[in-house]
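Problem 12. The chain below contains 159 residues. Write out its predicted structure in C-alpha cell notation.
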Amino acid sequence: MPALPLYAQSIGLSSSANGLVISAPALAMLVLNLPFGQAADRFGRNPLMVAGMAVMAAADVGTAVSRSVMMLVPMRVLLGVGRAGCECGDRAYLADLCARVPEKRGIIVAGQSTVHAIGLVIGPLRGGRLMEADGAPAASYYVAAAAIDLAHLFNRRAI
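Solution.
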C-alpha cells in the first residue's frame, strides 16, 4: 500500500486518480464481504482463502503492468475481490478456532493481529527497498509471489 502512491506518480496519475486507485479494493470488499462470508459458511474456509490469494496474485501482477488509471482501477478492484474472499475465509477460520477454545479467544485474536502487524511493518520496508532497487512495479510482483506461496500453502492444508 505505501508503494502505491509512488507507483501511481511514476506512471503520471493525478492525486484524485490516485485516491480512486487506493479506494478501489475497499469498494469491492464493501460489496462482496457479506456474500463471501456466506460462501465461507457454505463451502468452507479454505476454498475462499486459496481462491482469494490466487485472485490477489493476479491483481498484483495486473497492477505491476498497468500504465494508466483505466488499467489500474480494475486491477485494484480485482485485488478487493481477492481480499474479500481470503479475509472472509480467514476470519471465519479464526472464529472457528475461538469457538473451539473460548478461554483462549483473546490470545488467538491477539496472535492473528500480531501477525498482521508484522506484515504492516515488514511489507512497506521491503516494498520500498524493492522499488528503489528494481523500479516501481517490483513491490507488486513481490506481493504476488507471496500470495501464490500462501495460496499453495493453504491448498496443501485442510483448514
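Discussion. The helical segments are 3-10, 15-43, 45-65, 69-100, 105-134, 138-156. Students who got a different answer should revisit the alignment rule from Section 12.3.
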